[in-house]
Amino acid sequence: MRTATRLTATALGLAAVLGAGWGTGALVGPVGPAPAAAEEHAAADAGHAADAEEHGTDAGHGEEGTAAGGHDLPAGLAVSAEGYTLDLADDALPAGDAVPLSFRLLGPDGAPVTAYDTVHEQDLHLVVVRRDLTGYQHLHPAPAPDGTWTTDVALAPGSWRVLADATPTAHGSGVVLGADLAVGGAAEPVPLPPPSHAAEVDGYTVTVEGDLVAGRESEVVVTVARDGVPVTDLQPYLGTRGHLVALRVGDLGYLHVHPTAATGGEVRFAVEVPAAGDHRLFFDFRHGDVVRTAAVTVRSTS
Ligand SMILES: [Cu+2]
Question: Which of 74, 108, 126, 169 has its CA at 20 to 30 Å from residue 277's CA atom?
Answer without folding.
Answer: 126
